[in-house]
Predict the structure.
Amino acid sequence: MTDPPDFSQTPELLKSLGTALGLGLLVGLQREWARARIAGIRTFALVALLGGLSAVLSFTVGGWVIAAALVACAAVMIFGYLEEQKQPEPDIGLTTEISILLMFVIGAVAVLGHRLEAVVCAGTVMVLLQSKEPLHGMVRRIGESDLREIGRLVLAGLVILPLLPNREMGYLGVLNPFKAWLMVVLIIGISLAAYLAGKAFGGSKGSLLAGVLGGLISSTATTASVARRSRAAGTAGRSLAAVTLIASSVVFVRVIAEVVIAAPGAWPAMLPPLGAMMGWTLVVALAVHRMALKAGHPAAEESTPSELKGAVMFGLLYVAVLYGVALAKEHFGTTGLYTVAAISGLTDMDAITLSTSGLVQNGHVDPGTGWRVILLGGIANLLFKAGLVAVLGGKGYVRPALAGFAAMLAGGGAILAFWP
């Protein structure tokens, strides 16, 4: 049970009540703008303040007062709803009514010592209320086949994945069933997200969004997913190549963030060459994206992607590569830092980035060697994804994607060779 906040200081009590009142005004502003008949800006502010004051009273008379106030608020809301139904054009939705109850609870939460949680919840409520048209429009564009694929993603990610053991096992101790199946889930999810993004935002915006999200989640999984999609008839290869290359460039944004976090004392010396690599890959990716737009053939409307079989095959390939990496490490030993970087970077950039940054921060590796090790891992990662493109991609997709990867690799090699 949460201990009651110390209200011995009046300003603390006023701060909590002020937070409740302000959040009520925030959500009420949206409802007033939407011209909700039952409640507007004043009603929402008063309901939130009622929740806050009932929480204050609960410290003295018990928690029942919150329940009683909530029941009273619900009764008033029901009465208002019944009166609304008598109007010539009644609003049959319950959005405003549910929002009123939420704001009562949020007001109470703010006073019970959870102001941050209350602010986050109130902000979420306002965003959901304001996003009515985009959300409804997205739902109208989703068909039965889309729902079936969403169901597959739920089955793979929310039913099967939590049941798998999350530990290394088997030969060389590198097989982790949870992580292997997670790659399957990522491919299904990224493919579906890219398809829905293209459907919701159109060709160019959808490609950019899909590439950015893919790079933040897993550029390797994104490459495998997009390469398989490129085989479908009617798919514009350049647009999908842009998605792949954008995802690969966003990886270096993530790498820079990890270096800053893991090596706070050394990142100024490591970031310039890594930043140059990030900038070069972004230039290449955006150039291919621009060529796709100039060609006038954005990604065509596609059928709902069915990625389960292909995702499972990639999961098996991912496990095979992990075993290859483990065998190579056992053969070369961990003393060859560059060799380990080149091998481990094939499938994962996070591990080599964080471990090398930690070594630099602790003084075991100098910053000049550190950024070169990380960049070598990034080059190996680009090579691995170029291989996926060549093996899995369709004819119109392979050429621009491989040309982009070749340009990225050339830039990375030049930085590695000539950076002082």
In short: The two ends are 59 Å apart (CA to CA). Residues 203 and 395 are 20 Å apart (CA to CA). The chain has a mean pLDDT of 77.
